[in-house]
Amino acid sequence: MLATAIDLPADTAMRRNVRLLFLCQALMNSAVVGQATMGALIGYSLAENKSLATLPMALQMLATMGASIPAGMVFARLGRRPGFLLGAAGSLLGSLVFAFGVWQASFPLYCLGAIPAGLGFGIAQHYRFAAAEVASPAYRPRAISLVMAGGVIAAALGPELVKHSRDLLAPSLFLGTYLILALMPLACMALLTLVSLPPAMPRTGAATPIREILARPAFLTAALTGAVAYGSMNLLMTSTPLEMMLCGFGISASATVIQVHAISMYAPGFFTGRLIARFGTRPVIVAGVLLNAACVGLALMGKDFLNFTLALMALGLGWNFMFTGATTLLAEVHTPSERVRAQTANDFIVFGTVACTAFGSGLLHAVSGWNLLNILVLPALVVALLRIARRPVRFAA
């Protein structure tokens, strides 16, 4: 019989829980990375108006933003496990509706699948917060980094599933892929039954008004940094498969570029925490800004396979440094009792920005072209850089 967390010493049980959360994050992210690889291509093939090719991804990010507030309520009242099970169910439903839309060759049906898929992805963003809750204070930074690094498995698995299963149920291209991706949240549900997660915390005293949290300069810095990191990354990543298709590259080539990009996003999670501990949060965020600017430069230099690969690699690294730094800043802007409210407000802002960039990505790409799309990232990076440089990012609880 397998030992349960109750049978194990406290330190062993803690590390076991972190490893299980790592696997849950990897499974949930696999569906998202797979969708990022093929979503715009499927949208382009199904939509009569080609500027709507990235609409499914935009709707998914809009649902991710919309999940922030109800997810916070579920986590606060019922605890982490019911919330994560609900998220896995949303991801499962999303994959099945995506599959039905592909089977029917219906763009509206395909777009409909983005709603539950986005809700599931939004709830899955809280795995990094759950890691902090199950870990001891000394182990907490490594636990957060490790769970975020679960995306490395997703980065390797998601695009490979797309490459090898796209023709599985031909002539319905990608139908088999979505049915395989539906297995990911099912496996996640099974793992969640093995994780020891803290119950819902009883509410004590009056809750801090959300406007008070939003008004804190440190919160604004953390939220702005996270929004620019995720928004600029999503704007360019979503359009890359489209641009590569227009340049004559096949699905396998664009899947490989997205795979390299996703690995670059998550692999630094094994060491970014150590860089922050050694050099500080702001220098790491600045390095992320510079890497994103390098992505723009590489994208403007040419449209060879190497250009796309190196640009998306720099974009992934830049996202990791900026987003991990923003998550570290966020931990400094609230008291323990304000934790869920601050996390919910932050993710609402971040994924609201991501939804806007996903909506605009296809339209800007169709109307203005690849070069201008990249150049438009630079002003946002400058704003984030100025915000980090202008004031200390601390909060006195």
From TrEMBL:
Domain Major facilitator superfamily (MFS) profile: 210-397
Keyword Transmembrane helix on entry: yes
TM spans (from-to): 20-46, 58-76, 83-101, 107-127, 139-158, 178-197, 218-237, 249-271, 283-302, 308-333, 345-364, 370-389
Pfam families: MFS_1 (PF07690)
Domain of life: Bacteria
Single GO term (MF): transmembrane transporter activity
InterPro entries: MFS (IPR011701), MFS_dom (IPR020846), MFS_trans_sf (IPR036259)
Keywords carried by this UniProt record: Membrane, Transmembrane, Transmembrane helix
Protein name: MFS transporter
